[in-house]
Amino acid sequence: MYGKANPGQVEAAYLRNFAHYVTWPPQAFAEDRSPWNICILGTDPFGEVLERTFKGRTEQARTFEIFRAEELDKLPPCQIVFVAYKDGAKRRAALAELKNRPVLTVGDAPKFLQEGGIIRFQVENYVEMSVNLDQARSVSLKIQTKMLEVTHEVLENGVVRKQR
Q: Residue 83: in which H helix or E strand, if any?
């Protein structure tokens, strides 16, 4: 239960935690000390909450940088992309473009996993997270069991199964 927490704050905290619970292949970063690039694609639902959440934080000795753009080609290479497009066609096109890159795609659209996204979350009175393990594995992202244990649904081998 998050009481009166702003859903954006809760989602931003989850984005930060994903850097802890997901392992990227080495080629996902330009160099050993490259920062995490957290990217928002489309209309930013977070505002300053993201900067406050990531400010002064590090994960695996890397700092965080935040980028926002309306189009994918305006973003640098990112490790995490929050796909904020409300328009389904734009969202599917972006996910298709990211499909073969070691990028953790995150969103909150109802069909996000079926469209090829890796993590979907819904924040209401609590957080419900769903994970597309098939897509994560296809781009060499490893999601820790600890994270999967708190996941509502997992898409694996083409089948969605409820966890809790």
A: strand 80-83
Going 134 to 139 to 141 to 147, the CA torsion angle's sign is negative
Q: How far apart are the first and last CA of the chain?
A: 16
R_g over Cα of the chain: 15
For residue 7, the SS3 value is helix
Q: Is the pTM of this model over 0.90?
A: yes
Instruction: List pLDDT tens digits, range 38-47.
Output: 999 999 999 8
Q: Which residue, 128, 145, 108, is CA-closest to 1? A: 128
**DSSP letters for 90-153:** HHHHHHHHHTTSS-EEEE--TTTTTTT-SEEEEESSSEEEEEEHHHHHHTT-EE-HHHHHT-SE
79: exposed, middle or buried (C-beta count within 10 Å: 0-12, 13-18, 19+)?
buried
pLDDT tens for each residue of 86-126: 999 999 999 999 999 999 999 999 999 999 999 998 877 77
For the record, the structure tokens of 134 come out as: 């098939």
Measure the CA–CA gap between 158 and 61, rounded to whole angstroms: 35
**CATH code of the region 7-156:** 3.40.50
b/e sequence 9-30, b meaning 16+ C-beta within 10 Å: bbbbebbbebbebbebeeebbe
